[in-house]
From TrEMBL:
Record-annotated Tip attachment protein J domain positions: 112-159
Coiled-coil stretches: none
Transmembrane segments: none
Species in which this protein is naturally found: Salmonella enterica (Salmonella choleraesuis)
Protein name: Host specificity protein J
InterPro entries noted in UniProt: J_dom (IPR032876), Viral_Tip_Attach_Protein (IPR053171)
Length: 160
């Protein structure tokens, strides 16, 4: 707690400011959330750390038993390898418009009311431009990001 003697401030109103970092999430064991870097190969294990990477926030909302879907979905039911690739894309540094850099995507959510699970999941996924997909055995994710062309369509390969 914070204890302040009111006489120190006379008739002025006391103003308090706080910098909150939020929750501790499960993140990859080879991830350094302070530098947003991934070192070496990931063996699939997780460690607790603070992060505002939307991929790991999404993993938490899916697997946490108190405020997420953890009573119905476990870590094994979520494609952590797809989230790992998405998380790396989210952590890439991009220009911030002021001469510096910032992570491509971050999520600093403050949930104050109860909502449908799919609505919250869709909101979290929209932050990282992806869609949640149940592939029959687990929840996976498809992200809209630059990639190599799968096929080039021209007049020469169109029939009719």
């Amino acid at each position: 707690g914070l204890l302040v003697d009111a006489e120190q401030f006379g008739s002025q109103q006391v103003t308090r400011n706080y910098h909150l970092r939020g929750r501790i999430f499960q993140v990859p064991s080879n991830y350094d959330p302070d530098t947003r870097t991934y070192t070496g190969l990931w063996d699939g294990t997780l460690k607790p750390a603070y992060t505002n990477n939307p991929a790991w926030c999404t993993m938490d909302i899916l697997t946490h038993p108190r405020y997420g879907l953890g009573r119905r979905i476990g870590v094994a039911d979520v494609d952590k390898w797809a989230l790992y690739a998405i998380a790396q894309y989210c952590d890439q540094q991009v220009p911030d418009g002021f001469g510096g850099t910032e992570p491509r995507m971050t999520l600093n959510a403050y949930m104050t009311s109860q909502r449908k699970a799919y609505d919250v999941l869709a909101d979290f996924c929209s932050v990282m431009r992806c869609m949640p997909v149940w592939n029959g055995s687990r929840m996976t994710f498809v992200q809209d990001r630059p990639s190599d062309s799968a096929w080039t369509y021209t007049n020469s390969n169109v029939v009719g």
